[in-house]
Amino acid sequence: MDKMNDKKTGSMGCFTPEMIKTLAPNEVFVFGSNLGGFHAGGAARAALDHFGAIWGQGVGLQGQSYAIPTMHGGVEAIKPYVDQFIGFAQSHPDLYFYVTRIGCGIAGFADEEIAPLFREALAVDNIALPKSFHDILTR
Q1: Does the global pTM surpass 0.90?
Q2: Is 8 within the bounds of a domain?
C-alpha cells in the first residue's frame, strides 16, 4: 500500500505543487537556502518575497517558510538539516509542510541525490514532497 494514501492532505494536495503562490495559514513553504540566509534567487527568493523568509536566517522556520541549507557542501552536509526539519515537522502536527525540490535548482543537485534524504518524510503525515522525490523513493 502506498503510504501517501494514508497521509493527510494540504489544501494543494499530497504532493508539493511545481509553483506555490499562496498558502493557507497553517501551511509552510520549505525551501533550499544557504547558511548565510541570502535569499536572492529561486525558491529562496520566493520564500523571501511571499512567505516570510528572513534575510540573514539560513535555517529553520521563518514566517510561513522553513529554510534547509543546501549550498555549503555535498549531500552528506545537507542531511543533518533535513533530519532536523523532519523532526520539526513531527513536533508541529498543526502545520502542513510543502517541501520544494530543495538543492535541485541553484545548488545543482539532481533529484536522485536529494530525494533519499527525505525517505523518513514519507511516513510523516504533515509533509508533502515533490512528486519527483516521491517517485524516486517509492520505486
Answers
A1: yes
A2: no
